[in-house]
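INFO  loader      accepted 1 record
INFO  loader      residues=71
INFO  predictor   begin
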Amino acid sequence: VRLLRRSLELRPRSPATRYHLALAQVAVGEIDRARGLLEQALAAGDFEEREAAERELARLDSEAGREPGDG
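INFO  predictor   done
INFO  writer      dumping tokens
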């Protein structure tokens, strides 16, 4: 997580970095933080992992009992 945060500091506009940091946040139980990172990544436009990010956000929302886009 620490290295990915540093990477995001160096490349703050990188949606791919936000996606990978979100996955790391999920792994350590920081679900709300991960959800925010995924939403930011998806708002940034197209990137290679976009479909995976959409699936992960939908999964997190489903586990939380949220409708997609509820934030």
